[in-house]
Amino acid sequence: MPMKIQMMVFPFLLAALPMTVNAAERQLGPHVHGQASVSMSIDGCLMDVQVSVPGHDAVGFEHPPASPQERSAVDKATATLNGAAWLVPASAAGCTLSSAKVSPHGFGDVAEPGGHADFDAEYHYACRKTAELDHVDVRLASAFPAVRKVVVNIITAAGSNQQDLDGTVTRVDVRQ
Fold this sequence. Notes:
Number of helices: 4
Order of helices and strands: HEEHHEEEEHEEE
């Protein structure tokens, strides 16, 4: 792996370390209802995105589904995240989704420790014209109306920054 990519990916790997230590004690940082988090790293023609949405904001509950309607809600939220239509890179960049992986935690047969449930997802994009990737629209609040705030962390070759999206604001400037 080139040094440039290692330096950009290292903060995300460091943040994920507590998840790999003990799967029974999943720790992704603060779980705040009404707030989703998105982390993006852009290196060369690649854009990687990680997202975490509290289960309550995605489906209205945080426990293993107790009815067919609750199971359907979990399946619908998983499909919405898996489709990635909520994330729209600048069209001039020519980005295409290479892979998506959605992990609903706390909705299996056993409740998560601490009583919280989340939807975590990873996306990998390939962009033909990364120089044109000046913004990304993050439409999580449209996909999940209970999300009132989205905290976006961005790492590029130019540095890193954090942007908070409130209300109807969806545009993230990736060149700051």
